[in-house]
Design brief:
By secondary structure, this protein is an alpha+beta fold. It is built from 13 helices and 22 strands. The chain has three domains: 206 residues, Rossmann fold (3-Layer(aba) Sandwich), CATH 3.40.50.620; 76 residues, Uridine Diphospho-n-acetylenolpyruvylglucosamine Reductase, domain 3, CATH 3.30.465.60; 114 residues, no CATH class. It starts with 14 loop residues before the first strand and ends with a strand.
Length: 436
């Protein structure tokens, strides 16, 4: 007999959030939990995401709401009102899990349970083998995922979809079918319709074989992760990879380190990344270019700056600005330029000018193509070349302030270089600027 107690041990008064779609798998999971609720004094919360793509979605939400009210279960729901340009399944999955986590924290839950079953595991493993991954990815779906304050638990991995549907029929559990699950345009659906039936003909309990395969890979992966963690302490500082030390690592551990870095952006969804992305990063690291970048899925960018590599989420932050200098200007790079009456410093973070030698007013702006600055005794130099000489990261160059006069003449590159217009403390000047 199917029972959630066969695969998971509960404690008294556990609080469980169940991700529920109203489909046969998740409704079976909710019913199983209801049957043991009194035994363990469980606090149950059903969390539902209305994907807002089918007319039936409203019916599913209403059904779940009434079902929870009837069975005295807390019900939390959200509707997705807008999708971006990303892959639909990946985007929807992220929205779901972000919502589920909010519900977990709201109720201080111990567990988030999802109704992934043995067929899901087989499909996931096959898809990741086809795309390429590491051991963590090839292992497919983990039964338990440790989060910071709770655990994601998939207690139905020992059962097939057919077994769960049979359970629903036996216990008169009503559910809804998402017709999009039959469409061939989705990769997982093709594995489900054409590959899985063949495997089940060869071995009816193929899901249990894959479950064992997954567990063996997870054990091996745990050993590898221990070795990887030792390497991480040497090569990553403040989320930045130190390339010189990275190159000294074993090639296998190098790849594990890169998967670890990407995991911050893709978490449990390693289907998004594969061997090709690792090769892109390795080619970037070993290239002779001092400054370069590559794009990764879901608007993540890997930036190489000399002997450092950093992964960042692409944002729509300000990349250009132009502001007339006043007594105090707060810049988009979180620095300040202020005009002072006196200052003791003489470094590149201070600038002394004589107003009769420049055209007022002064302006601070971002760099422009072809910008050059007159250097004392050395003609002119491109702003781009100064950035290279000073090893300014690519990610910082677009927001770096450039001070120009009313004619567009560059008179100062704050924090990096002074122009021929800068005055010594012993010379005549009437404008003092400081960058901090």
């Amino acid at each position: 007999m199917l029972s959630i107690e066969n695969d998971f041990t509960f404690k008294k008064k556990d609080t469980v959030v169940v991700g529920c779609s109203a489909g046969p798998d998740s409704m079976a999971l909710v019913d199983m939990l209801l049957r043991i609720r009194e035994k363990y004094s469980l606090n149950l919360i059903v969390a539902h995401v209305n994907h807002n793509l089918r007319e039936q979605s409203i019916q599913e939400e209403e059904y779940l709401k009434n079902y929870c009210e009837k069975n005295k279960i807390m019900f939390e729901c959200m509707m997705i009102t807008e999708y971006g340009d990303d892959n639909f399944h990946n985007e929807a999955r992220k929205i779901r899990y972000d919502f589920f986590e909010k519900v977990v924290y709201k109720y201080h839950a111990n567990y988030l349970m999802t109704a992934h079953h043995g067929d899901d595991l087989v499909e996931t493993v096959l898809m990741r083998i086809t795309r390429g991954s590491n051991l963590n990815g090839y292992s497919g779906l983990k039964k338990v995922v440790e989060k910071e304050h709770y655990k994601i638990v998939r207690p139905l991995l020992s059962y097939t979809k057919q077994e769960l549907e049979d359970y629903d029929k036996k216990h008169h559990v009503m559910y809804y079918i998402d017709e999009s699950n039959a469409k061939d345009k989705y990769t997982r659906n093709r594995y489900r319709k054409y590959v899985l039936p063949f495997l089940k003909e060869e071995e009816p309990n193929i899901h249990l074989k894959y479950l064992k395969f997954s567990m063996v890979l997870n054990d091996a992966n745990q050993f590898i992760e221990n070795e990887r963690d030792k390497a991480l302490k040497k090569v990553i500082y403040n989320n930045v990879l130190r390339i010189d030390m990275f190159k000294a690592l074993d090639p296998f551990i190098q790849k594990e380190v890169l998967y670890y870095m990407m995991n911050d952006f893709y978490q449990d969804d390693l289907i998004l990344i594969n061997d090709k992305h690792i090769e892109l990063l390795l080619n970037l690291i070993y290239s002779n270019r001092a400054n370069a970048f590559v794009n990764l899925p879901n608007e993540v960018i890997a930036i190489k700056t000399y002997q450092e590599l950093e992964l960042k989420k692409i944002t729509t932050e300000i990349t250009t600005y132009e502001v007339e200098l006043s007594k105090y200007v707060l810049l988009p790079n979180h620095h300040v330029i202020e005009q002072l009456e006196e200052v003791s410093g003489t470094g590149n973070d201070t600038c002394r000018l004589l107003s009769s030698e420049v055209s007022l007013p002064l302006t601070v702006r971002t760099r422009r193509l072809g910008d050059r600055m007159a250097i004392k005794g050395n003609g002119t130099k491109k702003i781009k070349d100064i950035f290279i000489d000073k090893k300014v990261k690519l990610s910082e160059r677009d927001l770096w302030p450039v001070v120009v006069d009313a004619k567009g003449v560059v008179v100062w590159l704050p924090g990096l270089k002074k122009s021929k217009y800068d005055k010594k403390k012993t010379e005549k000047y009437d404008i003092i600027l400081r960058y901090s």
